[in-house]
Every structure is written in C-alpha cells, then in structure tokens.
C-alpha cells in the first residue's frame, strides 16, 4: 500500500509557493513543504511575522510607557503587567528579606548570595 502511495505521490510533487524552486515528493510531501515554509524558505513565516509586528507594537495600558515589539509582544506585555507594572515584588528571600519580582531572580539570588540550592518550598 505504501509503495502505491509513494508511486502516486511522485507524480504529484508539492512545490513551494514562494518561488524558491523547492519541491517535495513522497507521502510526507505536504508536511515537509509546511516545515520548509515555516523554517527554511527565504520568505519564511516567522520572518514575515517579525516584519509585520514591527509596525504593531503592544503598549502598556497602565500608562507606564512600556511597549513591546516582535512576535512575542503580547506575551511579554502580559508578563510585564503581572510582575512589574504597579505591582510590588512578589518573592522574598527567607534569609535576608530581599524582595524580588521574579522567581528565577530569587533562585539566582539564593544560589549566588547564600550558596543555597533548594526546592521551591524552601524559597518562600
């Protein structure tokens, strides 16, 4: 059955619509073409999304003046609003009472300042 599919697919290759000349044959041709268009083609989707998002920054609605550009701009703005904008630091060192905004900053602080490598329960 697979041999029949391969033979049929050889007569029906999938070509890249971006005129780069790449074509794929075989049963997996559509999946391979999709991967090519996302990651390898000179006109790949990620590059096009980056270009499009440069003209559409996401601004903080709290009026702090922060703006984010790029594909991850909305996610970065969401993180900014949760941890940074108008919010007191949420994490505190159990030893020196230093307050930090991010959990990863607390882990780094504990490791570098206090030489303690522990689990999440011991940090809070």
Report on the structure:
The protein is elongated. With 124 residues, it is mostly helical. Strand 3 and strand 4 form a beta hairpin. It has 3 domains: 42 residues, no CATH class; 31 residues, no CATH class; 33 residues, Double Stranded RNA Binding Domain (2-Layer Sandwich), CATH 3.30.160. The longest helix is centred in the first third of the chain and has 12 residues. One of its GO terms (molecular function) is zinc ion binding. It comes from Cinara cedri. Keywords: Metal-binding, Zinc, Zinc-finger.
In total, the number of domains comes to 3
DSSP summary, beta strand count: 6
Beta-strand residue percentage: 5-15%
Instruction: Identify the strand order in the major beta sheet.
Output: 1-2
Low-confidence stretches: none
Tell me roughly what share of residues is in helical segments: 40-55%
Estimated structural class: mainly alpha
Biggest sheet, open or closed, and with what strands and sense?
Answer: 2 strands, antiparallel
Distance between the termini: 60 Å
What radius of gyration results from the CA coordinates? 25 Å
N to C succession of SSEs: HEEHHEEHEEHH
If you average the pLDDT, what whole number results?
A: 78
Shape field = elongated
Domain C2H2-type: 91-119
Organism: Cinara cedri
GO molecular function: zinc ion binding
InterPro entries: Znf_C2H2_sf, Znf_C2H2_type
């Amino acid at each position: 059955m697979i041999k029949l599919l391969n033979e049929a697919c050889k007569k029906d290759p999938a070509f890249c619509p971006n005129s780069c000349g790449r074509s794929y044959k075989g049963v997996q041709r559509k999946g391979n073409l999709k991967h090519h268009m996302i990651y390898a083609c000179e006109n790949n989707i990620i590059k096009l999304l980056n270009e499009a998002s440069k003209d559409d920054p996401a601004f903080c609605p709290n009026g702090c003046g922060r703006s984010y550009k790029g594909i991850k701009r909305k996610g970065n703005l969401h993180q900014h609003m949760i941890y940074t904008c108008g919010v007191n630091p949420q994490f505190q060192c159990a030893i020196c009472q230093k307050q930090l905004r991010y959990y990863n900053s607390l882990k780094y602080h504990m490791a570098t300042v206090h030489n303690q490598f522990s689990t999440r329960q011991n940090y809070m």
